TrEMBL record:
The keyword Membrane applies. The chain crosses the membrane at residues 7-28, 40-61, 82-103, 109-133. Residues 289-350 form the TRAM domain. Pfam families: PIN. This is PIN/TRAM domain-containing protein.
Length: 354
């Protein structure tokens, strides 16, 4: 690749020498500067330009090669749709730049007709690609909406794809649920979620580091599970900084379902009309059902917040508040359920000793 880059530098130098140096010599001559006649010969000027750019290539080739490889890696990781809309925007930007350049060439002023068009082409090419790439989701929605307007209205069909957020991977229960076969469709793990897991795993805080590493272990466990398909989504939404909003946008693009145990993300999904599955809701729904008057046996393990209360727990983690249980700590006894309270944190049972 280095040889190709150096040849490219030489060719650019030949062209610049053929046009640029001669124009520069003519400009200097008009200003009264004594210019040797041999510098105005096209072939000599072209060779001088080629020699100058060859010398420059000795210092700049490595930098250019690194830049090319960096761009290549980024493009390979982008989804085909992102590249397509970016390329369309690039073509439109270059077309606008061409029209502007044509109007500038009419001026016959060297700076406006030769130099400015180069910067205009680079500027509008960049803006075209950036707009096409960053607005790809809006373009997709526009085309889909136009297509739907031509066809009779049909109910929106949701895919079975489940988009996992960082919290539900670190939580780990999703791996256990996947083993049972209750989850249908593909589990999609965005690259920006994996990046967040890696950031947490590299934290200087021991607790955060352990949580991040646990999340990466859970992800590997999901990939090794033959019952489900795990897809790594390499795309990103660079115009959005927050991971939660990126997940919602991805769910809108994929027509998928967000899986989380984050209360705030759950509420934002509901506001945006994006389907969401909350692992905590699932855990609460499969807990043991009890009704007032039912008897059970519990072990009081600690004091409650209120006076004379004791606290016990069922096998599924449900808290049982025992009235008058403060004096019964460390004792196993039968109790009668008096009431059940459902909160956002889970189910709480109130009971009294028999």
């Amino acid at each position: 690749m280095k040889i190709a880059v150096r040849i490219g530098f030489i060719l650019i130098g030949l062209v610049v020498g053929w046009f640029g140096i001669i124009e520069l010599m003519i400009l200097l001559s008009d200003l009264g500067v004594n210019v040797p006649a041999w510098l105005t010969i096209p072939y000599v000027a072209s060779l001088i330009g080629g020699l100058i750019f060859f010398i420059l290539s000795l210092f700049l080739t490595d930098m250019v090669v690194k830049f090319i490889r960096f761009v290549e890696e980024r493009l390979v990781r982008l989804p085909v749709g992102d590249i397509l809309f970016g390329s369309i925007g690039l073509i439109i930007g270059l077309l606008i730049a061409f029209l502007i350049s044509v109007s500038l060439e009419v001026t016959n002023i060297f700076l406006l007709s030769k130099i400015v068009p180069i910067f205009v082409t680079a500027l509008f090419g960049y803006f075209g690609f950036a707009v096409g790439y960053r607005k790809r989701n809006e373009w997709i929605k526009l085309f889909v909406k136009s297509e739907r307007e031509k066809q009779p209205a049909e109910p929106v069909r949701r895919s079975n794809d489940k988009i996992l957020d960082t919290s539900v991977i670190i939580d780990g229960r999703i791996a256990d649920i996947a083993k049972t076969g209750f989850i249908e469709g593909t589990l999609i793990v965005p690259q920006f979620v994996i990046g967040e897991l890696q950031y947490i795993a590299d934290s200087s805080d021991t607790l955060k580091r352990n949580r991040g590493r646990r999340g990466l272990d859970i992800l590997k466990e999901l990939q090794d599970n033959d019952r489900i398909e795990v897809e790594i989504y390499d795309g990103d939404f660079e115009d959005v900084a927050e991971v939660d909003i990126k997940l919602i946008k991805l769910a809108e693009v994929k027509n998928g379902i967000v899986v989380t145990n984050d209360y705030n993300l759950n509420k934002v999904c509901e506001v945006r009309n994006v389907p969401v599955l909350n692992i905590n809701d699932l855990a609460n729904s499969v807990k043991q059902i009890v009704i007032p008057g039912e008897e059970m046996v519990v072990t009081v393990i600690k004091e409650g917040k209120e006076q004379n209360q004791g606290v016990a727990y069922l096998e599924d983690g449900t808290m049982v508040v025992v009235e008058g249980g403060r004096k019964l700590i460390s004792k196993t006894l039968p109790v009668v359920v008096t009431s059940v309270l459902q909160t956002s944190a889970g189910r709480m049972i109130f009971a009294r000793p028999e």
